[in-house]
Hints:
The protein is of the alpha/beta class. The chain has 13 helices and 15 strands.
Amino acid sequence: MASIARASAIPSTMRAWVRRRRGPPSSALKLDPGFPTPAVPMRSSSDVLIRVSHVSLQFSSEMLMKALPVLPFTGPYVPELELSGEVVAAGDSVPPEVRDPGTHVVAFQNIPTMVMGHGVLAEYVRLPGSQVARIDATVDKASASGINGAGSTALKMIRTAGVREGHTVLVNGASGSVGSVLVQLCKLRGAKVVGVASGGNEAMVRGLGVDEFIDYRKEDPLPDYLAHHYSDKPFDFVLDCVGTQALFDNSPAYLKAEGAVVNIGALEGALATMRNALFNLYLPTWLGGVPRRYIMFSTPPARDDAVYLANLVEEGRVRISVDSVFDMGDAMRAYERIATKRARGKVVVKVRSD
């Protein structure tokens, strides 16, 4: 009965950012104050209705808005992937820990559904219970909103590479949303971490626990610096959150023969990154290919990862870095901040005004 009572106070409309045309957020998005609120889940449903607190923006959002046409059969396009909030109503088939109204949660939209326009940059969202995880009410909601995207990506990188105690890894982009989590997860596994970022972010990156810090602006070109200083103590893995092709091209000078470059960045643009990935993966060494493994993969969030990471955050063993928080009406400024490529951690939109 508590769920029904709580649901009865839900307004019929809400605020949501909606994409009206293809293009950058500044010209494509509009704040709709009368967007229909999702329906309350039936008792037999496996869905959860969430009142959104904060939404963490994705670096890839602008690329998607520029590339994807507005399709008439998909309905209004709402962007973004991950959020923090609290349960308003839930069906009886959702996991018990995220069923009660008022439960604080982190949640994500699956990527295909988000690409089709059913994102989470709105005051209310309805999601399957399999995409919702409980989080303690004491955890900062802005920080919690970044658990799924940055956290799941970092977790998959270290699992794919197989980072473990005794390894030495290079994290390129150590001050970014993924890189900052990656540094902490590598340290939890007992690895030695060398972090790369701009000098202005040195204090932040060292605070995450790196063993050595490299200012890529000062040590330019970075591959030459690495070859000079690490040829006699090569890395087990290069974990690239930026997408610097030169790091892979020159990696034999500072990466063990059995090591690998794991890349999730696209600094040089989507088309160049796709082209580079094809050559990196399939060009044989006798035709000029680099004699080192190259790994690139998609990183869809998963509930099990969210639960694991939420526990680490609650225990104070991992923190999700937040660069800045913008009010719902100022989301354009948040996208502008991401576009600078200088954000130190997550850029977050505060959806709730109370």
